[in-house]
Write a structure and sequence with these properties.
The structure is a homotetramer of 289-residue chains. Chain A is α+β, with helices and mostly antiparallel strands and 289 residues long. Chain A has 5 helices and 14 strands. In chain A, β10 and β11 form a beta hairpin. In chain A, α3 crosses α5. Chains A, B, C, D: InterPro entries: Bact_transglu_N_2, Papain-like_cys_pep_sf, Transglutaminase-like.
Chain lengths: 289, 289, 289, 289
């Protein structure tokens, strides 16, 4: 078990009345536990509508913003699940795939698995099925695609990344998803907060493949171990998990993100409170929104 | 109220063990009523798994097929809803859109509304918002895109259709969806059976836009009035509503489809029940009308 | 030395007054010699303008066609050069490339060498420079791209072929050209008539790379030895060497092509005429147009 | 008659031995006259090879560069031709087009006139042929495409510009060329130096269409009258007229360009020298390379 502390601050300048939908809160599904969190919006919107997508567990907040500066701050302490990935996990034959994951075989805006079908077969079709094959996909991407900030934009698809051989984390993940789907392995995108050894901290994107009846995470960028991920969004591709969707004339003016690794109090029970009484490293539990 | 009778027969040759997922049954949601239907598979599969997608109401059947000939036959009598479209219906501002339709604003595999955003603004951005604007989109497509069988394939996207100015019904619908989404009007694809005045009968694709709090159908091909549609599938684009998804070496050898318009018994009340007293309109295999 | 006999017949139906430009005559440049030829157009056009492009040596005929049937017939006997390709030939460093071939490094409509630059580097960048590297390109294409008639059309580019991994001879050649240019090896397209061991005979397309100060032919399809090629057109890509460019409403109704391999009389001088006095296999020399 | 003075300075950092080809000198063809010019390269290359492309008249300099800083300076005084464009000029029917301009109807890397053929027909096909139609093309581009620096890059094609409705001067020109070719009007790209009313000065790109037996310039950006253009390059699209083609690891570190409008002494002979005796605005004639 591990603890992460997230401290995110987004500054915007709103030029005209606008509507925003944020997807920046850690999910409360699965083994991940949100120990404490606050999401503040300044100035506070008249009406603030929070929700959770039933299938994905993605949480969102919607609100109107008036002209002027706007600041979003999200702070959370999250207990991340330990990730135990078996060394061997079989691919599930399509006729045994649950209905619910069949859709994760379909091509999407950024993952044209239909167009890259022959490529996937050539590169990975002869490998033995199973988790090793998906790992081979992640390895191939790591070795073949150069991580180049600015080499892609919000319209870049897996096919383009395959041709230009450059991209950023979401492009790496999209290509992994695309190859998996082309091989009839359900796959989807996962985004969240990751503690990198080297700054700057940023949102991160990895992918997940359905193997042996469970979702298994892969990070073709190898920028951090996947068990450092604090999950925020799960979707078919990046369009489903944008951290902000903005309708109107709104400009981001600053973004600050700190992700810290905390000691888990259960792992270190002997640790006594500091004289001041404050718990070092643990956010004082706050009312969850 | 109207009645349609569907008689579909699909012949395949299965070259190796395969898995099929069919989406050919009329939906039972909304105002549409399936009075009677049979779906037969020859040879009958050992296991046949039927289901219905919770959000869309799309129905599907999955089964394994063994090498040899395979025949699917679907016959149904369906009462179609009368379609009353108000002459005026407003667009719903994004901050009032229900969470459930927000996703219908996103770009998808075949509908790159992000790429066509400026085009949509140029062509339709200055029109008064409301149902008239979506009708203007459908009219523009009808006048600008040539219906050319064979001009597109299963990989063709709305952007390509916009450039090549040619396509078939699903391409017309994809372009309509794309323009709507680019204008912040939720839109989605609807496929089904339509009785055309001129043969051959075929599956048809139209699109639906969210206006005034309801989904409204549009057919940019103008091949048939939209109230002739027997709905089979509703989805974000064609990838969600393929009538057959085939995993394995299976070739279609023949397709026969007849769609007939029946008189509604309420319109023709003199027709008496058959002597056998059987319940018309219940699944029990019935003599087809 | 080898002799080929070409017998081409093209039938068209002209629906409205049109203008045609044909590029179907064997070139008279280099080591290739046209021993005899006739090009007939039925009905004969009022004005028939023949020419030869100064740089490429491509020959063309332009004429107006009136409504009705139109038949083009080209017959020629051509002595093909023996192709002696040294086992080793160096790539020419860019600073030593003649001005005249620098343009053959540029991307063109069908050969986006700029887009495939990183791919070319990954696949072939570490190979030792020289003819062996270009042969490796041709081999890779032969092994990676499936020859599928109908998988491409007149708009298909090398990038698309690289992604879809399927194409026909001109696509194979375009991809070879693209990889070469991306590695700073000048390359261009060559089209002509080739005698295939198996019918049907057809136009063929191969590519040529500038190595050791000369153009060297490569055929990634391996459909026939390159020394069987009767050269008709040389250009930067397929747009430069279309065998027919048609302005107007003209439909091809039939195409017949026979390519035969003849014995060269000079190579076999002892061969006596057959009793009938006719020369077996050699067209009676005809006045060249 | 008009006089322009060009003062261009390009600074590079060469990281490894490289080869450069520059196309920055004003052409000496047609009515344009280079009164004086110097092209200096610092440090001076061991060997400097100058040339002029026979068809286009484009001039180029090739040389090797060694690691370290590299500075190119080009200064020239050029008498520009007066541009008299008749109000009416006919399109030339394809069967009367000279062989030499037929190639300017073909699609190229950046101008996919084949893909945009139906669009061109829809937008401009019904307009009366002639110079007015090409002007309508330029007008449409001016009104439909937004000038957005950074919205395109060196791989952007006319099709992409048509879809994204944004670009810079070369994109505007490429789209104009593409529409012309799709309508069977030969068209090509022209680049050079232009004196803009508002800084910064930069290279500029416009296009030229073949009308009434002559090339006529059009600038869809309307950034400056076309008779202010000092022609440097003429080609089928941007790939033919790159101002620098660099083979090797060379980074541009600075670019300075000043274009000034001079009074022509022959046009204004009565103008007396300023008291200081210096000729205002006229470079002292320098030895031409």
């Amino acid at each position: 078990m591990h603890l992460s502390h997230i401290d995110l601050r987004l500054d915007y300048e709103v030029d005209a009345p606008a509507h925003l939908r944020l997807n920046i809160e850690a999910t409360r599904t699965g083994a991940q536990t949100v120990l404490s969190e606050t999401l503040s919006i300044e100035p506070p919107p008249v009406r603030r509508q929070a929700g959770c997508e039933p299938d994905s567990g993605n949480r969102f907040v919607r609100f109107d913003a008036q002209p002027g500066p706007l600041t979003i701050a999200y702070r959370a302490t999250v207990r991340r699940p330990a990730v135990h990935v078996p060394a061997t996990l079989p691919e599930v034959p399509v006729n045994q795939l649950p209905d619910a994951v069949l859709g994760d075989l379909l091509p999407t805006r950024y993952c044209e698995s239909d167009l890259l079908a022959r490529c996937a077969q050539q590169l990975f079709g002869d490998l033995p099925p199973g988790i090793g094959r998906v790992q081979a996909i992640a390895d191939w991407i790591h070795e073949s695609i150069v991580y180049v900030p600015g080499s892609s934009d919000s319209t870049t698809t897996a096919r383009e990344v395959f041709v230009q051989r450059a991209g950023v984390c979401r492009d790496f993940a999209h290509l992994g998803i695309t190859f998996c789907r082309a091989l009839n392995i359900p796959a989807r995108l996962v985004v969240g907060y990751v503690w990198f050894d080297e700054p700057p901290q940023d949102f991160h994107a990895v992918f997940e493949a359905w193997l042996g009846g469970q979702w298994v995470l892969f990070d073709p960028t190898r920028m951090a171990p996947v068990d450092r991920l604090v999950r925020v969004g799960t979707g078919r591709d990046a369009k489903d998990v944008a951290f902000s969707t903005i309708f109107g004339a709104v400009r981001m003016t600053d973004k600050k993100l700190a992700v810290r690794e905390l000691q888990d109090e259960r792992v270190a029970p002997a640790r006594t409170p500091a004289p001041s009484g404050e718990l070092r490293g643990i956010e004082k539990p706050e009312p969850v929104l």
